[in-house]
């Protein structure tokens, strides 16, 4: 196969990666990155994967707030926010804290709508 014939195949194989790269580059967190003040916020804005994960966390938080009320959800979220901010710019730490927040929000949401079964810890771990 000549180089001229291989080029369309190469471009066809490259297209999905370009689309994925483009969508990741456009990932924005729930907050305005122009207003990012902390090292944690700046790290989330600089990392499309963290920005996407932060958006997922916000979605789970909104589900929690709908079930337990805004003030209780805020109380739970403030604890998680403090832990996440303690990460500074450490992206691995931020990722762990975002995943932990998602798990905690889901568990709290479930606990608010279902009777206790004694298996809550296993369910939280399976959510992560």
TrEMBL record:
<dbReference type="InterPro" id="IPR052755">
    <property type="entry name" value="Lysozyme_Inhibitor_LprI"/>
</dbReference>
<dbReference type="GO" id="GO:0005576">
    <property type="term" value="C:extracellular region"/>
</dbReference>
<keyword id="KW-0732">Signal</keyword>
<feature type="signal peptide">
    <location>
        <begin position="1"/>
        <end position="27"/>
    </location>
</feature>
<protein>
    <recommendedName>
        <fullName>Lysozyme inhibitor LprI N-terminal domain-containing protein</fullName>
    </recommendedName>
</protein>
